[in-house]
Amino acid sequence: MNRTVHYLIKPFVRFALNNTRRSRILLVHKDEVLLVEPRLDKQRVWNMPGGGIKKSEDAKEAAAREIAEELGITVSASKLKPLFKQAVEKDGYTYAAEFFVAELPSKSFTKHWLELRSAQWFSLSALPPQIGPLTQRAITIYEKSKKT
């Protein structure tokens, strides 16, 4: 059933996401990161939470809104630190993405059942093998910034 739904809505997702702006946020607690598996991602890859940027928002505000919606975590947009920006091509569409990091005081979260298949904390020294390339890049940049 899930595959059928995925293939039915994929053309609409491509149309809706093409040439949009999106934000992602790396959530860190001590030496762990919170990664998610979006429900509609058939590849079952761990990524950072995030989503689309509304016309009335900047990228930081969108990232803060998305983690509140997806994970029930409240973070002030002013607490988000930029990691990098990149044009992304995925599944036949292109979008502009901004990536941020936030260090959290606790590991508490509530996964949104409709948007996310899974959400889990992983040690930076024991990341899952199926991790998205942009998520891996964000983690690498974050780790290098901690060493300097």
Blueprint of the fold:
Blueprint: H1 2-17, E1 20-29, E2 32-38, E3 50-52, H2 59-71, E4 81-90, E5 93-103, E6 116-123, H3 133-147
Parallel strand pairs: 1-5
Antiparallel strand pairs: 1-2, 1-3, 2-6, 4-5
Rg over CA atoms = 15 Å
| Main pleated-sheet profile | 6 strands, mixed
How many individual helices? 3
Average pLDDT:
87
**Helix content class:** 25-40%
Structural account:
Strands 1, 2, 3, 4, 5 and 6 form a six-stranded mixed sheet that branches. The chain has three helices and six strands. The N and C termini lie far apart (49 Å). 30% of the residues lie in helices and 33% in strands. It is an alpha+beta fold.
For this entry, give a set of tags.
148 residues, alpha+beta, 3 helices, 6 strands, 30% helix
Short description:
By secondary structure, this protein is an alpha+beta fold.
